[in-house]
Design a protein that fits this description.
Elements: H1 3-10, H2 20-46, H3 48-55, H4 59-87, H5 90-108, H6 114-128, H7 131-142, H8 148-156, H9 158-177, H10 179-200, H11 220-228, H12 231-250, H13 254-261, H14 263-272, H15 277-308, H16 314-333, H17 339-345, H18 347-354, H19 357-366, H20 373-407, H21 411-423, H22 426-435, H23 440-443
Helix pairs in contact: 2-5, 2-7, 2-8, 2-9, 2-10, 4-6, 4-20, 5-6, 5-7, 5-10, 7-20, 8-15, 8-19, 9-10, 9-15, 12-20, 12-22, 13-15, 13-21, 14-15, 15-16, 15-18, 16-18, 16-19, 16-22, 19-20, 20-21
Length: about 450
């Protein structure tokens, strides 16, 4: 049976569904844009140690510039931009956004002190706020219901691919040319891609009605109340934000953890490959996060679409189980004596930590009314980024400094204590994902 016939029988198709050839092209372009998004977002994580030493920063400042500084305007600007995307021209919004964050990434290379770098990261967050709310609502409009998780999983492959590229490129370029050049190399591709997206992407609402004229529009607070009243939406937003504290909170400190606790072994391994420690760790962590994360993103979406055909609860069961299994993995990895085993072992929680992306973004879109789906993504990202991207790294950095100050730990053991402590948030996330099983079938929309 054709996808169109299935949609007509089920009533689950999108009225804006696009031809399969164009849909693939559009999702590919959006995935490239999201990949560049994460290159610019993540490159600072492998640069944290050289930036810390040159600008004389504490761990809490590293957490602030890599987390809260980025998330501040990302979260605040995301909702009004998404409100515009709910009625406006989403391809143009995406194009302007990618140009803005890329230009600010290049500007970070010129920072001479902590406040200047902080402002640059705030600008990156402001630009990146415009991409995902518009992109995910476009993908949902383009795709039939039974393919949404898989389509969104392709888009969210930009997370591990961009992380891999950002970490590997950032570490290698920084070793040879310095951390400032790494910011320039990260930002320039987005500046060049912005006009391509403006011309290549199609706004499907144009074929249905005039943009901005499709009926009465809910007020801002009414939109938020409507979304937050949906039980499944509310639970998965909170669950993902808590899970994100673990993933996003760890990201700026993993390279520092290995340098501080396994410095001699890292230097020896790097030399055997003709690299310096930062380049070696950037490549190693990038491969671990990128390749394993890509497997996790694809696996989560594929399993959810396959199992969800018979039971919609699979869309929240899979993230719940993955979150629960990640805890023992982190505890083991941060206590291993071998840096090789620890780097290889990180692949397991990296797979598990990425499995929520396709199922949960598909679910948050599918339980939300179609006319406010960009706003649904923006509110989702507002909570996720404020708590996980904004406060996660700050929490890890503060706990690390606190362990050193209170217990007399050295910088390496203090960071280990912090990372293990924060990993205990994963079971709480699993509980909230699991709780959404009770309401997802009732809340699901076409």
């Amino acid at each position: 049976m054709s996808g169109t016939a299935l949609n007509e029988r089920s009533g689950a198709g999108s009225s804006f569904e696009q031809p399969i050839g164009y849909r693939r092209l559009a999702i590919l372009l959006l995935t490239i844009a999201f990949t560049l998004n994460f290159v610019d977002r993540q490159v600072i994580n492998i640069l944290a140690e050289p930036i810390k030493h040159e600008l004389h920063l504490a761990d809490w400042q590293v957490g602030l510039m890599s987390g809260l500084a980025f998330a501040l305007l990302y979260t605040v600007a995301g909702i009004p931009i998404a409100r515009l995307a709910d009625k406006g021209d989403r391809p143009r919004i995406i194009s302007v956004s990618i140009f803005a964050w890329s230009a600010f990434t290049v500007a970070c290379s010129m920072a001479r002190n902590f406040p200047q770098l902080l402002l640059g990261r705030v600008g990156v967050g402001l630009g990146e706020a415009g991409l995902t709310p518009a992109a995910t609502s476009l993908i949902v409009d383009y795709s039939p219901r039974e393919r949404r998780a898989s389509a969104l999983s392709l888009y969210f492959l930009g997370v591990p691919i961009g992380t891999l590229a950002g970490m590997a490129m950032g570490g290698i370029v920084a070793d040879v040319y310095g951390w400032r050049t790494a910011f320039v190399v990260a930002g320039l591709p987005g500046v060049l891609m912005a006009p391509v997206l403006a011309f290549a992407l199609r706004e499907p609402r144009r074929s249905q009605t005039t943009i901005g004229s499709s009926g009465p529009r809910l007020g801002f607070l009414a939109t938020l109340r409507q979304l937050w009243s949906i039980r499944t939406y509310r639970l998965i937003v909170m669950a993902t934000a808590i899970q994100g504290v673990v993933g996003y909170g760890f990201a700026p400190f993993l390279a520092s953890f290995f340098m501080r606790n396994h410095g001699a072994e890292v230097a020896s391994l790097a030399a055997s490959f003709g690299l310096r420690p930062a380049g070696f760790l950037g490549l190693s962590l990038g491969l671990s996060t990128g390749l394993a994360g890509a497997v996790g993103v694809w696996l989560g979406g594929a399993l959810a679409d396959r199992l969800g055909r018979n039971d919609l609860r699979a869309y929240v069961t899979i993230p719940a189980m993955a979150a629960m299994l990640s805890l023992p993995c982190y505890i083991l990895i941060f206590n291993l004596d071998s840096v090789v085993l620890a780097l290889i072992g990180l692949a397991v929680p990296n797979v598990l930590g990425a499995m929520w992306m396709g199922p949960i973004h598909s679910t948050q879109q599918s339980v939300s009314p179609r006319e406010i789906r960009s706003s649904a993504t923006a509110l989702f990202l507002f909570v996720l980024n404020l708590i996980s991207v904004g406060l996660g790294p700050l929490l890890v950095g503060a706990l690390s400094d606190g362990a050193v100050s209170l217990f007399g730990d050295d910088a390496g053991s203090g960071l280990r204590t912090s990372l293990i402590t924060v990993s205990f948030l994963a079971p709480l996330s699993a509980f909230l994902f699991w709780s959404a099983r009770r309401s997802i079938r009732e809340d699901y929309k076409a």
